[in-house]
Known about the structure:
The protein has 11 helices and 6 strands. A hairpin with an 8-residue loop joins strand 3 (275-281) and strand 4 (290-294). Strands 2-3-4-5-1-6 form a 6-stranded antiparallel sheet. The protein has 394 residues and is of the alpha+beta class. The protein is 54% helix and 12% strand. The chain binds a DNA duplex (16 and 16 nucleotides) through residues 203, 206-208, 262-267, 269-270, 276, 278, 282, 292.
Amino acid sequence: MVLLKKKKKKRRMHTDLSLETPDHDHEDYKTIQEGDDRGVDDDQNKEVDEEEEEEKEKEAAAEEGSEAVLSLNEKENQKEDKDKISHEKPIEDEFCMLQAEIDRMKEENRVLRGVIDSTLNDFYELQMKFTEIQQKDQPKLIIRAIYQAFLSLGGESSNELFKRVDKSREIEEPLMAADDKELSLSLSLKTYADPHEGEDASCDEGKGTGLTSWAPVEAKLQGAGNLTSVTSQSINPATRKTRVSVRARCTGPTMNDGCQWRKYGQKVAKGNPCPRAYYRCTVAPGCPVRKQVVQRCLEDMSILVTTYEGTHNHPLPVGATAMASTATATANFMLLNEANSSSTINVEDGIPNRAPLSSFLRPYLVKTNPPLSAVSSFTSSAGYSSNPFGAKFP
DNA sequence: CGGATTTGACCGGCGC
DNA sequence: GCGCCGGTCAAATCCG
């Protein structure tokens, strides 16, 4: 019995160390185990329970005789050795488990990379298919692209948009009545005016291109602090290039539209002390798109007028903002209407048929906050002809 | 060192 | 034909 008690004490000492609690005698330990520290560690509690059971067993065995006590002592010794091994083993096991986990993760990573690669391939294939479909069904998709782009900029609900489009259509109806067949742009340019665009015309279109003079409708809006202009022009159907002018408030020298541009020239235009910068699209080699940035308008030094020319021969980068998409879509829209002036645009989901581009955009042009404030479109006679629907919408 | 930017020169269109 | 002007080119320069 004395031997047993000694052993008990020893084992409890071990448990105490593992608990990192100060040494205490048997009685103290017992009170702690039964009291406050009951939930400290399940394993330790189990161990204590086992000990209690063993104690009972041992007491019962002690009654049977000293031989039994001796054999029990042997068992105890064996068990102690096992315990020592079991305390070292978890570290090794844990290490092995971690290594296995790392291996498993590596494998998983490899599989995921494969999935990403195949997904990217699928994406590019779909993008190409989308382009093909888009070329077949251009009007619908352009309207949708513009609509989506402006939704993202204006944050207006689709229902509101459709209502606004309907309203603007009502306003424009009398104007359109003159030539109902002639779709949108040539009419809209007469409808929506921007007095500043005439000045921009000296920048944007050069002399003698015959920009229409603008009604003061938008001037009021500008007076209210909103920059708006929707302009378009159609001259000489033989050779055309699309020009989309975007007027925006921007604090920097240029606005980031998501595309890569390389500056290839700068000129001081007559009548505007602010220099005009010329940029080429460098996203894809041989991309015909150029943009001119009139760095500041005289009226408002924070205004940046960017004129996009031509259409991209490559998909727009993923990072391309709605600005670039909209500009391209507008350019495509212009070209399409030039090519097919009596075409009817049927757009699903409530967007009315034959909605002029300007009327379509107008709600947003009035409403939108910077950076995008205006989109102007031109189709004018010029040197190169570009694939009108070459641009892809993201 | 390579790519981007700057800047003066050059070219073509247009008006006088 | 000349001059003006917008647009482009290309060598020089800058910059990361």
